[in-house]
Specification:
Blueprint lengths: L2 H16 L5 H17 L4 H17 L8 H16 L14 E7 L5 H14 L4 E5 L7 H11 L4 E2 L7 H14 L4 E5 L8 H14 L3 E7 L4 H14 L3 E5 L8 H10 L3 E5 L7 E3 L2 H8 L5 H11 L2 H12 L5 H14 L2 H5 L5 H4 L10 H9 L3 H5 L6 H11 L3 H23 L4 H20 L1
Helix pairs in contact: 1-2, 2-3, 3-4, 4-11, 5-6, 7-8, 9-10, 12-14, 12-21, 13-20, 17-19, 19-20, 20-21
The structure holds guanosine-5'-triphosphate and magnesium ion (MG).
Length: 452
């Protein structure tokens, strides 16, 4: 996510770091670099200029030049401005009606149908009972696509094949939800190739008829400033409640994420980070600012971890760690869990400083293959007693798994580190604050361990 922007901002701040004493000239040079980075990330000139002016005023107001740690203060100011630019506070869905109704809108191929499924899955995991409603009556396979999506997240789909009136289908779908005691209805609509009057009329009419709790505008982040312009046009016409930014996993420059809020004064509520149903994240401006500046996003990571671990499992692991019984069987189980958490590269980017280090590394979940092979080459006894895996055993394991001694050694080290991190994470329980604090400690511990 936003690799090139991250790179450029880091370079900008590095320049500042190299200076013994920073001067007004260094600061304005850094600011110029930051501005250029924003514009290259497809942030509009207007927004970039306003941004720079605010940062500059703040820097002068807080007397950066005489600050104890001027570089850090500058970074903090830019971080704050980025977070403010994106709205600062997360904007959760506001669902009041029974059933609550969520209406999707957006251009063709922006990701409405996919996101409808992701959202249904998400709401279901929170104990709600969603119903998906298929109002795309134009594209031949649209209804079928929603059914496939619904099926994959085990959420029912209401459709009315042959009925060409999306308003009526939406109303019928909501009535059906009432009968079936579904408490939230997600209405998927037809895409527009471009902003065209007839289609705009249709979505406006649906909206008037069903009075949704939330009208969401879905937009492809890869389209940069076009995304922002489309958002403006949709907002003028249907006054939506929030934005869904999809395809943030791709080679997105980031401009849309940074600018939309400022231009339409509506919050980004979720982002899509992949084609799979679990690839959805709450949009958190502070977390995003932190990620853009290469500072990681431990909040999001903690959330993912909590999604996977139930309390019981966490307690069991915690006990094992406490009594030093955490072994390779458990480790293997953790790998399965991590795979469930989603794309590994995306997860890694939430760790401070790690995202960038992995930027050019081609890792995906198959990276676990050799690790799994090594563990499968251990005897059951060895898996249960990791501390007894000596040099000779390591040699044998390397041969058996078709890897090398170095790889086995590396895994042994990773295993030891994982124990430490897991210890911190599991004892954090359900308290993300505590968990984050402990993860930081664990990270520091691992660093020390590495130096020894
Ligand atoms: N990489 C990536 N692909 C996505 C994401 N969201 C959707 N897609 C893909 O984008 C394509 C279009 O998604 P759809 O959900 O069909 O889009 P739509 O808005 O419903 O399109 P229409 O119904 O034609 O208007 C599909 O191939 C999806 O798999 C995302 O967050 N990341
Ligand atoms: Mg669709």
């Amino acid at each position: 996510m936003f690799n090139s922007l991250q790179d450029k901002l880091e370079t900008a701040f590095k320049k500042l770091k190299g200076q013994g004493k920073i001067t007004e000239i260094n600061v304005s040079e850094t600011l110029k670099d930051v501005r250029r980075a924003l514009v290259e990330a497809d942030v509009s000139y207007k927004v970039a200029n306003t941004f720079m002016k605010t940062v500059k005023d703040k820097a002068m107001g807080q007397n950066v030049l005489n600050a104890v740690k001027p570089q850090e203060l500058m970074l903090k100011i830019v971080y704050d401005e980025l977070a403010d630019l994106m709205g600062r506070e997360p904007a959760p869905l506001v669902l009041k009606n029974k059933p609550a109704v969520i209406l999707m809108s957006g251009l063709q191929g922006s990701g409405k149908t996919t996101f409808s499924g992701k959202l249904a899955r998400r709401l279901k995991s929170k104990g709600m009972h969603p119903l998906l409603v298929a109002c795309d009556v134009y594209r031949p396979a649209a209804i079928e696509q929603l059914k496939v999506v619904g099926n994959s997240v085990e959420v029912p789909v209401y459709s009315d094949e042959g009925n060409m009136d999306p308003v009526q289908i939406a109303l019928d779908g909501i009535a059906h939800a009432k009968e079936e005691h579904r408490d939230v209805v997600i209405v998927d609509t037809a895409g527009r190739l471009a902003v065209d009057e007839k289609m705009m009329d249709e979505i406006a009419t649906i909206r008037q008829a069903i009075r949704p709790d939330e009208t969401l505008f879905v937009v492809d982040a890869m389209t940069g400033q076009d995304a922002v312009n489309t958002a403006r046009e949709f907002n003028d016409r249907i006054d939506f409640d929030g934005v869904i930014l999809t395809k943030l996993d791709g080679d997105t420059r980031g401009g849309a994420a940074l600018t939309i809020r400022e231009v339409v004064h509506k919050p980004i509520k979720f982002v899509g980070v992949g084609e799979k149903m679990q690839d959805i994240q709450d949009f958190d401006p502070e977390g995003m600012a932190s990620r853009i500046l290469g500072m990681g996003d431990l909040g999001e990571l903690a959330k993912r971890i909590q999604e996977i671990y139930d309390v019981k499992e966490a307690e069991a692991i915690e006990k094992k760690l406490r009594t030093n019984k955490f072994d390779f069987e458990d480790f293997l189980k953790q790998i399965q869990n991590i795979k469930k958490m989603g794309n590994i590269k995306d997860l890694a980017s939430m760790l401070p400083g790690v995202g960038k280090a992995l930027k050019d590394v081609d890792i995906d979940n198959s990276a676990f293959k050799s690790i799994e092979a090594i563990i499968y080459s251990m005897t059951p006894y060895e898996r249960k007693h990791p501390d007894e895996i000596n040099g000779m055993r390591r040699q044998r394991i390397a041969k058996g798994s078709g890897t090398s001694l170095q790889e086995v050694n590396r895994l042994m080290k990773q295993f030891a580190d994982t124990r430490k991190v897991m210890k911190a994470v599991t004892s954090g329980g359900k308290n993300p604050q505590k968990m984050m604090q402990q993860m930081r400690q664990a990270k520091a511990m691992m660093k020390q361990g590495g130096r020894r």
